[in-house]
Amino acid sequence: MATAQLRPAAPRATRAAPRGLSVPQLKVRTSSCVYETAGQLTEHLKRDPEVQLEASGLKVAEKSLRILSLAGADLQKCTGYLPGFGALGLRLDHFRATTLSTPCELRARVARLLEPPLVSDSIVQVVTKKSSWPGLAEGILHQLDGGEAALEHFAECFRFVGAGPAELVLLAAQHVEKERPGLRLALCPSLGASLDHTGGFRYNEVLVLLCSWSNVASEAPGLPAIRPRHSAKFLEALEAE
């Protein structure tokens, strides 16, 4: 089964910032270190229920999804992996990619979804460079043709490695939202198995659960400070490999 989520009471939380205060921003660039940026996102989400993500440059779509995966894992670690945490989700506001694997632009909201749906491994779709985003979008729209009941239980899961497939998934999700006015989708990423025997991070598969943007946590988790996994110098060297 893909990343099962149990549904008991959520971990103890602190109050969200009063309305009217600005939402914290996280910027992702081609040169951004995945580990350091994930740490920044984690710190933001310990204090605020939502973060505005802005990314521009080469391969930033895949990088942003990997950053969310690491931040989600760090937050769950701080709760002692107690059930009820949910999953970090990305809600697209804007995504532009002229051609695959070229510089793109992404604006999105990041928040914690309390009850993401469960998805069987048997329906996970593998996305490659040869896949087409119109084809992915058509499959998603077909699932949504069942009306309100279909939307309530809607869930798709994609598996891929690389910037090109990541951009295809985002393009498909954006197209579906345009075809279904009022529909807001969440992309909930997590890391899968490594396809390289050396265990290099960039060879880890990315799993993206696509579901309705709903059951959004209204409070920040209120977690203690997280000890950095490695020194900044080590992370820079790892990113350069």
Amino- and carboxy-terminal Cα gap: 32 Å
How many extended strands?
8
Q: Give the overall average pLDDT.
A: 83
CATH architecture tag: 2-Layer Sandwich
CATH topology descriptor: Translation Initiation Factor IF3
Instruction: Specify the structural class.
Output: alpha/beta
Main sheet: strand order: 1-2-4-3
**Strand residue percentage:** 25-35%
What order do the helices and strands follow? Answer: EHEHEEEHHEHEEH
CATH superfamily: Alba-like domain
Q: What general form does the structure show? A: globular
CATH class: Alpha Beta
The parts where pLDDT drops under 50 for at least 5 residues are: 1-20
Sheet with the most strands, sense and barrel status: 4 strands, mixed
Number of helices: 6
How many domains would you count in the coordinates?
Answer: 1
**Proportion in helices:** 25-40%
Provide the gyration radius in Å: 17 Å
Region (Disordered): 1-21
Biased composition (Low complexity): 1-19
Can you characterise this structure?
The protein has 241 residues and is α/β, with parallel strands linked by helices. The chain is built from six helices and eight strands, in the order βαβαβββααβαββα. It has one domain: Alba-like domain (Translation Initiation Factor IF3, 2-Layer Sandwich). The two termini are 32 Å apart. Residues 1-21 are annotated as: Disordered.
What are the main properties of this structure?
four-stranded mixed beta sheet, Translation Initiation Factor IF3, disordered N terminus, alpha/beta
